[in-house]
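Methods — Computational structure assignment.
A single polypeptide chain was analysed. Its primary sequence is given first, followed by the predicted tertiary structure written as structure tokens.
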Amino acid sequence: MDSGWGSGMLDELDAELDRSEGYPVAALILGSIFMVIVAVIVFSAVPIDITAHVGAAFAISALVAGAVYGAAWLLTLRHARTGWKIAAGIAYFVLGLMSVATVVGTAKLTERMDIAALDQIHLNDAGEPVGPPGANGPVVKMGLAYIRAMIDERNKREALLVAKLGLDRIADASALTMAPELLRDCDRFARAKADLDASDQRYRAIITKFRTSLSAAIKDDGARREALDGMDRAFRENGGQLDEMSAIQHQQLDAAGGLCTLLARRNWHDRGSVFAFTTAGDLAAFDRQIAPWNELVKKQAALSARAKSEQLDRMGNDRSRF
């Protein structure tokens, strides 16, 4: 048989369980939801990089938790039992920490995906660099801008060598017959070496700018090291090709100047693309000059083919195209 004292305690407990303000579960749940919403809004609005200032983010989350707890206290928690007051405070604080962890984790995952999108940049049918569908993060945008800048510089270089200097036609008899002005001002080839050097400097400046921007944009230390190491490795492989191509083009300018001076004498007529010389001396001089020219053309074609083949290999191996 139960004692009166025991029966009184049970009655007291039953009465306490029946009190809505004694165990404010709804307030705790709604407060927790509100805490998460407020945390997301605050972390979206604060003018700091959460991933780079995790300590500050935790401090902000503690302030937000305190503000939410204060609001909940005024509404319902002040009527709750002490245990629930403490539990609610702990819950809000833990949710704040979890919000920070979620924001940081999501930011790092997004950054990794952004970096990975660099490997999927390719040229479309129009020759424009494009990234994978939906990839519009800051890193992939930098990659696209870098490739566009390199393509633009390449086009300027080709315009100099082909459109302005006529380097592609200087050893073609029919082309020179149709455009005799190409045999005037033969010194232009020597002067163009300074333009090539300036183009080389612009290439290097584009590469340096991209590397510097990439280093500043990637917040995660490990991801930054991986990206920069891959980029440096690719530049070591491709940079040699840029230097080799520049050296070939400098030699072509020298050879073109000599051909231009010889052919400007006009002791020849064209048989299609072939030169038919009217003097044995000019024919012998032409043979001496055209041999190294043809060798340079072969080297240039081989280098271009090698570069294209290596690019396809990198694409097949899912390595960085940079």
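Note: Strands lie at 122-123, 129-130, 268-271, 274-277.
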